[in-house]
From TrEMBL:
This is Laccase. It catalyses: 4 hydroquinone + O2 = 4 benzosemiquinone + 2 H2O. One of its GO terms (biological process) is lignin catabolic process. Residues 65-176, 189-337, 447-582 form the Plastocyanin-like domain. CDD domains: CuRO_1_LCC_plant, CuRO_2_LCC_plant, CuRO_3_LCC_plant. It is found in: Secreted, Extracellular space, Apoplast. GO terms for cellular component: apoplast. Belongs to the multicopper oxidase family. GO terms for molecular function: copper ion binding; hydroquinone:oxygen oxidoreductase activity. It comes from Oryza punctata. Its cofactor is Cu cation.
Length: 584
C-alpha cells in the first residue's frame, strides 16, 4: 500500500500547532510521510502510450478564499483554483489520477473522491481523521489513485467540517478510448452540479461550530444552486444556461452536491432516460422527474425534441421529514439554438414540480432502477458470509462539556447507528491506527455491534418517542472488522426516534447492490419475495425510505478503513456514521 506524501509549504512547524488550537481537535502529527511519486510525473495524456494504456491525469488544486456575489450579497467562500463550483476532473476508465492539493485557506482541508473505489489506495480516500489527518493551512498533499473498472459521473468534495458547501466539483470517468457507452451515443453532454447557498455573515465552518455548541440543527441555506447559480431572478442573471440543438440527444450528468437536501429535478416539456446512477450503469429507465439525494449522481439522456424556445430547468427540495416547510427551488435555462431569433422578451416555459413532501414520487424513482447486466462483469453475491442489521436515525445525547451553549436539561441532538453515535478520533486517523496495530487501542474499538442492542418496534413513532431509553445514545468510535473477500449483507433500518427521515447513506470504498427496499420494519421472511438477486441497482449512496429499510450486499475485497455515513451533512457531526475495517 502506498503512503501519502505530506509536506509543509512555506510555514514552519509552529504554524501547525497554532492552527490546531484554533480549529480544535486533530492529529498530533501529519499523516505518514511517503515518497514523492516522481515516477509518475511528466507522463501526460499526450503520451502516445495513452492510446493503448492508461494515462496519468494531473491536477493541482489551490484551495483558498474567493469573493463571489450571489443574491445581491458579496461574500468570501473557500474554493478551489478560484472557481465555484470547482474544476472538472476528467479521466478514462483505467487512468491514474494525481491531484496535488495546496491549502492556502485558513481551514484544515481534505478532498474525498466520492464513489472512487480506491482499490489498494485507501490513503487517498479523503475523509478527515478516517483515512488521513487534514491538510493544514500552508501545507499540501498529493492524492494518487486509479479509476480502473469505473465509468460514469462521480464528484469530489471537501470531507472536513461543512466546507464541501463550496469545495466541490465533477469527476467524470469515460470509457477507455474506442469503447462505446452501453447506450446510444449522445451528441454532447452537460454536467449539472446541484448545490446549496448560504448568505452567512460567518463561514460554513462557523455554521457547523454553532450547531455543535448549541447541540441543535445547523442554520439553513438560503437557496439552492445549479452550477453555482440560484437562477431566482426574472432578469435571468445568476442563472446557468444550457444550449441544445433540436433533434439531438444530450447526456446530462447530475450531481447532488447539496449539504442537506434531496432534490427533484425536471426540465419543462422534456423527459429523461436514466442510464447510470453513482457511476453504475442501469437498465434504461424512462421518467419525467429525476430524484437525487446528496452524494448521488444520475446520468440521463435527454432528447431535444421540443419546439424551439426556452425551457426552465428546476431542482427543488424533496423533504421526507414530517411538517417540513423549507421548499427552495433553483432554476437554469434550456435554450434551443434556433431560439436566438425569438429574442429575449419571450417567457420561458415553466415546469411543474412535485410537492416538497412527495415521497411516492421519490420512492417510485429510487425503487424502480435496476442494474445493467454486462457480459464478464461481476453480479450480486448470491452467498452471504456476514449478516448485519443496522438501525439508524436521530437521537438525543447528553451535552458534552465543550458544548457550552447546549441546554443541559434537553440534551444535544445526535444520531446513531445501532445506538452508537460515531465520534471521529482526535489523535490519529483510523487508517493510520489500523496500520500500526499496537496503537489501535487508544483510537477505536472493533466492537461495532452486528445488531441493535435492543429490539423494538423501530418505526412505531408513538411507542419509540415515549420511551426515553430508546431515544438516548452515547458516543463511541467503534468499527466492524471484516475478513478479506467475505460477503456482507446489511439491513439498514430507519427508526422513528424523534422523526423518521429518508437519510442518504454513503459507503466509502465500495459499490453495493441494493437488493430490496421498503417501508416499515424489515422482516426477512415476510419480505423475501421483494429480494432481487438477478439485476439489482448498484450504488455508493442509498436514500433509504423514511421509516423504512433497505438491504444491501457487497464483497469486502478492498483493504482499508471505510466510513459509512449519512450524506446529509448536518447528521455527520451528530454521529450518523460507522466504519468498516478490512484487514490486508
Ligand atoms: Cu441523515
Amino acid at each position: 500500500m502506498e503512503l501519502p506524501e505530506t509536506e509543509n509549504r512555506g510555514g514552519g512547524a509552529p504554524r501547525h500547532h497554532l492552527t490546531w488550537r484554533r480549529i480544535g481537535g486533530g492529529c498530533s502529527a501529519p499523516a505518514s510521510v511517503g515518497p514523492e511519486p516522481e515516477a509518475a510525473r511528466g507522463i501526460g495524456r499526450s503520451s502516445a502510450q495513452a492510446v493503448v494504456d492508461a494515462a496519468i491525469v494531473e491536477h493541482t488544486f489551490h484551495v483558498g478564499n474567493l469573493t463571489v456575489e450571489r443574491l445581491g450579497q458579496r461574500q468570501v467562500i473557500t474554493a478551489v483554483n478560484g472557481q465555484f463550483p470547482g474544476p472538472k476532473v476528467e479521466a478514462r476508465n483505467g487512468d491514474t489520477l494525481l491531484v496535488r492539493v495546496v491549502n492556502n485557506s485558513p481551514y484544515n482541508i481534505t478532498i474525498h473522491w466520492h464513489g472512487v473505489l480506491q482499490r489498494l489506495s485507501a490513503w487517498a480516500d479523503g475523509p478527515a481523521m478516517v483515512t488521513q489527518c487534514p491538510i493544514l493551512p500552508a501545507s499540501s498533499y498529493t492524492y494518487r489513485f486509479s479509476v480502473t473498472g469505473q465509468e460514469g459521473t462521480l464528484w469530489w468534495h471537501a470531507h472536513v467540517s461543512f466546507l464541501r458547501a463550496t469545495v466541490y466539483g465533477a469527476l467524470l470517468i469515460r470509457p477507455r478510448l474506442g469503447v462505446p457507452y452501453p447506450f446510444p451515443a449522445p451528441h454532447a453532454e452537460h454536467t449539472l452540479l446541484l448545490g446549496e447557498w448560504w448568505n452567512a455573515s460567518s463561514t460554513l465552518v462557523d455554521v457547523e461550530r454553532q450547531a455543535f455548541l448549541t447541540g441543535g440543527q445547523p442554520a439553513n441555506s438560503v437557496a439552492l444552486t445549479i452550477n453555482g447559480m440560484p437562477g431566482l431572478h426574472a432578469r435571468q442573471m445568476e442563472m446557468h444556461h444550457l444550449r441544445v440543438a433540436r433533434a439531438n440527444t444530450y447526456l446530462l450528468r447530475l450531481v447532488n452536491a447539496a449539504l442537506n437536501y434531496q432534490l427533484f429535478f425536471k426540465v419543462a416539456a422534456h423527459n429523461f432516460t436514466v442510464v447510470a446512477v453513482d457511476a453504475c450503469y442501469t437498465d434504461p429507465y424512462h421518467t419525467d422527474v429525476i430524484v437525487i439525494a446528496p452524494g448521488q449522481t444520475v446520468d440521463a439522456l435527454m432528447h431535444a425534441g421540443a419546439a424551439p424556445g426556452r425551457y426552465y430547468v428546476a431542482a427543488q427540495v424533496y423533504q421526507s421529514i414530517a411538517n417540513a416547510t423549507y421548499s427552495a427551488t433553483a432554476r437554469a435555462l434550456l435554450r434551443y439554438e434556433d431560439d436566438d431569433a425569438a429574442g429575449e422578451g419571450e417567457a420561458a416555459k415553466v415546469v411543474k414540480m412535485p410537492a416538497l413532501n412527495d415521497s411516492a414520487t421519490a420512492q417510485r424513482f429510487y425503487g424502480s432502477l435496476t442494474g445493467l447486466l454486462r457480459d464478464g462483469k461481476p453480479t450480486v453475491p448470491q452467498r452471504v458470509d456476514t449478516r448485519m442489521v443496522v438501525t439508524y436515525g436521530l437521537a438525543i445525547a447528553p451535552c458534552l462539556p465543550a458544548q457550552t451553549l447546549c441546554n443541559r436539561t434537553r440534551g444535544s441532538l445526535a444520531a446513531s447507528m445501532n445506538n452508537v453515535s460515531f465520534q471521529l478520533p482526535a489523535s490519529m486517523s483510523l487508517l493510520e491506527a489500523s496500520r500500526s496495530r499496537s496503537r489501535v487501542g487508544g483510537v477505536y474499538t472493533r466492537d461495532f455491534p452486528d445488531r441493535p442492542p435492543v429490539m423494538f418496534d423501530f418505526t412505531n413513532a408513538a411507542a419509540v418517542n415515549s420511551n426515553m431509553s430508546l431515544m438516548l445514545t452515547s458516543k463511541g468510535t467503534r468499527v466492524k472488522a471484516l475478513r478479506y473477500n467475505e460477503t456482507v449483507e446489511v439491513v439498514l433500518q430507519n427508526t422513528a426516534v424523534l422523526a423518521t427521515e429518508n437519510h442518504p447513506l454513503h459507503l466509502h470504498g465500495f459499490n453495493f447492490y441494493v437488493i430490496a427496499q421498503g417501508t416499515g420494519n424489515y422482516f426477512r421472511k415476510r419480505h423475501k419475495r421483494k429480494i432481487n438477486l438477478v439485476n439489482p441497482q448498484q450504488r455508493n449512496t442509498i436514500a433509504v425510505p423514511a421509516g423504512g429499510w433497505a438491504v444491501i450486499r457487497f464483497t469486502a475485497d478492498n483493504p482499508g478503513v471505510w466510513l459509512m455515513h449519512c450524506h446529509l451533512e448536518a447528521h455527520l457531526p451528530f454521529g450518523l456514521a460507522m466504519a468498516f475495517e478490512k484487514m490486508n
